[in-house]
Amino acid sequence: METLRIEVGENVQVRITTIGGDLRLTGREGAQLEAHAPVEGKLSVVKKNEHVEVNCRSGCLVFLPSDAVVEVDAIGGDFRTIGLNGDLTLGTVGGNCSLRRVGKVTIDRIGGDLDARKLSGDLSLTSAGGDGIVSKVEGSVKIVTLGGDITLQRVEGDVEVGVGGDASVRLAPKKDGHAVVSAGGDLTCRLPEDASAKITVQAGGDLRISGVQEVESKEKGREVRLGSGEAEIDLQAGGDLWLRTGSETYTDIDLGLGESITAGIEASMADMEARFDALGRDFSKFDSDRIGERVRRAVSRSMRKAEKARKLAERRAKQHHRERHISFGIGDYGGRDQVSEEERMSILRMLEQGKINIEEAESLLRALEG
User: Fold this and answer.
1) DSSP letters of 286-344?
2) Angle of CA points 130, 133, 135, to nearest 5°
3) Spatial distance between the Cα atoms of 165 and 336, rounded to a whole number of angstroms
4) Helical residues (DSSP H) of 126-165, grouped into ranges
5) Please, which pLDDT band fits residue 162 given cuts at 50, 70 and 90?
């Protein structure tokens, strides 16, 4: 294992040209940049005036000042970062992209999934091939093209999102705010009861509007007015569209549980990194981070399965002409999958409560996956 360390400024500009495998960036206090990679990766760290250039043929782990400004050209595998406050610009990420507690982020292309949580700035993405989770963004969100499904919530700025699959969004529009969400599949949008917005809705399939009194038919779709109509929202779905206002459903509660579990995992990962640093930075300890990542993905899979199960139940209810509202959380569907989901959520709740650790949770979840 090769380790390179150099002293830099706290606001250093870092350019990472090419990473052949996975890249992990971790922001921390201090003015030192530290990089780890296998010897065969031919790790290179070069300081040029106030800039630092990093290059590696294999996977790479980099610790750097939390206020560093980072630009990455190309990553062959997955990318994960946590604790970076400076601007982050990514070119191409071949695999999945995970962002935690970061500032402004601009991304050109992601081959896999996007998981972005707790951003203090704007998020801009040109294209991604997989699914997306976006939560707790203090700025605006712009996603031009996402190939799969998206779950989006708690965005304080404007929203512009286009996805090929399904979209589940919770919007809290501010005065003069704008939001545009386009989904090739189904779209579910929830707004708070006190929202003030003018909403245009178009659906290729069924259109459901719940908790709204003022609805006007237009040449293209319908227009919904909430309060004084101070914000503008445009919703388009190739499939079914459900617009609702009001209190949380059981599904929303379970999604909150998923966030809570993820926060707990992040805390454990931060503790692991501190131990990793104190133990002489043995790179083999980095495998524990991969275990934690698998637990995160298990949580995300459970969330997506719950949402798809709810939609399936609603379609079946419509086919039987049952005019009732159906909303439930994880584990409310029958057969063998019901047992698996209930067991999975039990494991994740035990993890959240501290009754088991991450390694034990990962082992149990892997056993459930068969």
Assistant:
1) GHHHHHHHHHHHHHHHHHHHHHHHHHHHHHHHHHTT--------TT-S-SHHHHHHHHH
2) 160
3) 26
4) none
5) very high
312 CA to centre of own chain: 24
Q: What is the dihedral of CA 258, 124, 184, 116, to 10 degrees?
A: -10
Residue 294 sits at φ, ψ, to 5 deg, of -65, -35
* Residue written as token pair 């700035």: 121
Bridge partners of residue 125, in order along the sequence: 107, 143
d(CA 101, CA 118): 5
Which tokens hold the place of 288?
Answer: 């524990």
pTM of the predicted protein model: 0.72
Q: How far is CA 158 from CA 141, 153, 221, in A?
A: 6, 12, 22
Q: What is the pLDDT of residues 236-282, one digit of tens each?
A: 999 999 999 876 544 444 444 555 555 555 545 554 554 444 444 44
Contact 47, 35 (CB under 8 A): no
Q: Evaluate whether 59 touches 3 at the Cβ level (below 8 Å).
A: no
Nearest Cα residue to 260 out of 117, 53, 115: 117
Q: Are strands 88-93 and 69-75 parallel, antiparallel or unpaired?
A: parallel
Task: Say if CB 60 and CB 2 are below 8 A apart.
Answer: no
CA 46 to chain CA centroid, nearest Å:
32
Residue 188 corresponds to which tokens in the numbers above? 């579910």
> Which residue in 192, 212, 61 sits closest to 201, CA to CA?
212
- Report the distance separating Cα 337 and Cα 313, nearest Å: 14
Average pLDDT over residues 89-114: 97
Q: How far apart are alpha carbons 359 and 342 in whole angstroms? A: 20
More confident residue, 218 or 330: 218
Q: Reduce the DSSP state of residue 274 to 3 states and report it.
A: helix
First CA to last CA distance, the chain = 34
One-letter identity of residue 317: A
What's the CA gap between 245 and 192, in Å, rounded?
Answer: 5
Angle in degrees, CA 287, 268, 248, rounded to 5: 120
Looking at the DSSP bridge assignments, the partners of residue 79 are 23, 97
